[in-house]
Specification:
Largest sheet: 8 strands, mixed
Oligomer: single chain
Number of strands: 8
CATH architecture: 3-Layer(aba) Sandwich
Strand content: 5-15%
Helix content: 40-55%
Order of helices and strands: EHEHEHEHHEHEHHHEEH
Length: about 270
């Protein structure tokens, strides 16, 4: 990984932070992306103290303008990206929308990684071209609500999250099929007691923190795909932790994937 550039979103805490610190001694230049300079800077300081090197990239993934501005600033300094780890995610407690009017779970978990991969596409193709999208085992319970993607009716945070993770897993497979120059995979990292669950009741958060895995263990699948040579050409796959696994049937439905791609491309304003 010497002199390779790796971008990690949602890196201010939890699995993202653990992923950044897991790259500390690999020789990679790690771009620590978070919503605030304070949280990104704190993790960058830890990275440097652990022997790593990198920089911060502040972006609010619920805002397309923030994403565009962040990427533009990054590309002024860098010509290539070797690995993009779309780690950031939300599980909303109630239905709220982004500034452009999308349900926030869909906006952050689906539109943001789709936009980032597109905007960084040329830089990724000049590098190793690896894109790692964090999915979830919850995608198996998901459904694409074609007539109500934004869940105006019968909204539940769980329902929104499951749909979003199914969608990003489908889009990962579709991107891999469309672009041979990119190596795009989706991973279920495991479940850790991170900020993802901040909207849950306190007693549920207690048991999550007590019983679930650690962020460090949950960072391992992304680190494996990012750094290990045997996965250099792996693409279009779904990993359950560190093991290949067959995803939800809709991920292998080429017509459904194409339909979803067209919908999300339009939503994201990407031709």
């Amino acid at each position: 990984m010497e002199n390779k550039t790796v971008i990690v979103t949602g890196a201010g805490a939890g699995i993202g932070r653990a992923t950044v610190l897991g790259l500390a001694n690999t020789g990679a230049h790690v771009v620590v992306s978070a919503r605030s300079e304070a949280s990104a800077g704190a993790v960058l300081d830890q990275l440097v103290q652990s022997g790593g090197k990198g920089e911060t990239l502040v972006m609010d993934l619920a805002s397309p303008e923030s994403i565009r501005n962040g990427v533009a600033g990054f590309l002024e300094k860098h010509e290539r990206v070797d690995v993009l780890i779309n780690n950031a995610g939300v599980w909303a407690g109630e239905r709220v929308t982004t500034g452009e009017g999308f349900e926030v779970t869909w906006g952050v978990n689906v539109l943001a990684p789709f936009r980032l991969t597109h905007l960084l596409g040329d830089a990724l193709r000049r590098g190793d071209g690896k894109v790692i999208n964090l999915s979830s085992s919850q995608h198996y319970k998901g459904n694409i609500h074609w007539d109500d993607l934004q869940l105006h009716q019968n909204y539940k945070g769980e329902r929104a999250y499951q749909q979003s993770k199914l969608a990003i897993t489908m889009l990962s497979a579709e991107q891999a099929a469309r672009d041979a120059d990119l190596k795009v995979n989706a991973v279920h990292p495991g479940v850790a007691g991170t900020d993802l669950f901040r909207n849950f009741p306190a007693f549920i958060r207690f048991w999550i923190n007590l019983l679930m895995s650690t962020p460090e263990k949950c960072a391992q699948p992304s680190l494996m795909l990012a750094t290990q040579p045997e996965y250099a050409e792996t693409t279009g796959k779904f990993f359950y932790k560190r093991k290949l696994r067959e995803p939800h049937a809709m991920v292998n439905d080429t017509d459904a994937r194409k339909r979803l791609w067209e919908v999300v491309s339009k939503q994201a304003g990407i031709d």
